[in-house]
Amino acid sequence: MLPTLRYTDSGNFLLIAGPCAIEGEEMAFGIARQLTALCDKLEIPFIFKGSYRKANRSRLDSFTGIGDEKALRILRRIRDELSIPVLTDIHSVREATLAAAYVDVLQIPAFLCRQTDLLVAAAQSGRVVNIKKGQFMSPDAMRFAVDKVILSGGKAAWITERGTTFGYNDLIVDFRGIPQMQTFGQPVIMDCTHSLQQPNQSSGVTGGQPALIETIARAAIAVGADGLFIETHPNPAIAKSDGANMLPLPRLEPLLHKLLSLHKVVRTF
Fold this sequence. Notes:
- The structure is a single chain.
- Strand 7 and strand 8 form a beta hairpin.
- This protein has a single domain (about 10-265), classed as Alpha-Beta Barrel (TIM Barrel), CATH 3.20.20.70.
- The strands form 3 sheets. It has an 8-stranded parallel beta barrel, surrounded by 6 helices. The chain has a two-stranded antiparallel ribbon with strand order 7-8. A two-stranded antiparallel ribbon has the order 10-11.
- With about 270 residues, the chain is of the alpha/beta class.
- Helices cover about 35% and strands about 20% of the residues.
């Protein structure tokens, strides 16, 4: 079942945005309301993103969530009360069925994009599947992940580019991959925040380069990406997950104005 999106006739790019993780109801609703109002103002198709559980953490004492059912109920309330689609990550076959009852889009984390049983379960849930491209995967190899979803009855298999491992502690983005993956017939989205991670730091806390979020986003729009994925938080310094590479929420509106202007120009070619 494809999610119901507002402003799909505007011609604007899709925005998937929200906090890395659901930290609580007040926090999640506050971000969701601001993002919904902003995207309504700018006529941008919007999906709210929030991980109900963080399974891939560097350290044992890292934040993983507030409880599965509690976080999923918050996501469903956001969907119902704000009339917007919502997205969350899943990590196992069991979670595909669990999360599908609460959200519109199931996201496959990058490290799990080759897990056949997980992709098949996500496809059979009836939800849209957003596959993060593995840091270790070539763009062309992602066609097989897409095939697993579509041939298993999935309605759509979006692909999200999030950079490629470069050495031990860095990522690079090869923008040739966006048009390459678009040839598979599915939307391709640019993850503007995770692609700027600096993983596996000696402290056990992932670093990042949030000052370059605009650079990545502008480049993605310029090469024709179908959408952008941006994690955002009112105060990334106190975020419980991935604060080092999130965009401060007040900076999102001026960035979107720039990107819409660029997108308008790109569409004329």
